[in-house]
Amino acid sequence: MQIGAHIHDEDTLGVGKERNADVVQCFLGDPQGWKKPAPPLTAADVESSGLAVFVHSPYVVNVASLNNRIRIPSRKLVTQHAAASADIGAKGLIVHGGHVRKDDDPQDGLTNWRKLFERQADEGGFGVPILIENTAGGDGAMARHLDMLARLWDEVGDFGAGFCLDTCHAYAAGWELGDVVDKVKAITGRIDLVHLNNSRDEFASTRDRHANVVDGDGTIDPEQLVEVARAAEAPVIVETPAEGQAADIAYLRKALN
What is d(CA 218, CA 13) in angstroms, rounded to the nearest whole number? Predict the structure, then answer.
């Protein structure tokens, strides 16, 4: 099982190796901005490193939005980041499920997701798998509740959409971790990546505050996180505080391999 971390450093591959990772995740630009990605690494860098790489899209992306000033640049940013991810040999692009506003019809947000995949299918695809990630809160969220996730998959599943399971987000949204893998796979048929994060807050808090898997201030039993990873049978990325990532990776490798 590949185990690694999200690296908040320009030397993604070097720092990943220092933390004894098999796989790393990174941004290809400002995570809070709308600028075109400028990858800090190349396909040759990735190949020579021996590490697998996943890319996370900027947090500002909201494909579901009914606001043209958000949805249209979001679509553009996803396609740009997908192309850049393909160029460096990344294994996938993670995109948050997004949300609609309080008085909007959620179905319109789900339809906007389908339109993204339809339009890109006409252009020959994204070049890398698009992995939709579950989110912790938001009443109009597309991937907070399992029933809404099922509706989303009715729209995008036939286009080969992938899924990224975030354990902190799931726990904060009120998903029981004991059977979360079975429930998600019953909807999506797949889990392509696990963001194995502990939570600083209690169950169903709707708060997205990550903690280290071990030796931190997390409220999830680390053994329960291990069981989620084991059941998912997918690469594992910890998006946890940097100072504890090496310990998180070591703990998970010992428990899972």
Answer: 27
228: Cβ–Cβ under 8 A, 6 or more apart, which residues?
165, 167, 177, 180, 181, 194, 196
Q: What is the mean pLDDT of the chain?
A: 97
pLDDT in tens, 14-65: 999 999 999 999 999 999 999 999 999 999 999 999 999 999 999 999 999 9
Instruction: For residues 63 and 99, give the distance between their C-alpha atoms in angstroms, rounded to a whole number.
Output: 8
- ∠ CA 41-161-37, nearest 5°, is 25
210-211 and 198-199: which strand pairing?
Answer: antiparallel
- Distances, alpha carbon 121 to alpha carbons 10, 107, 191, in Å: 32, 21, 22
- 127, amino acid identity: G
In the chain, the domains with their CATH numbers are: 25-232 (3.20.20.150)
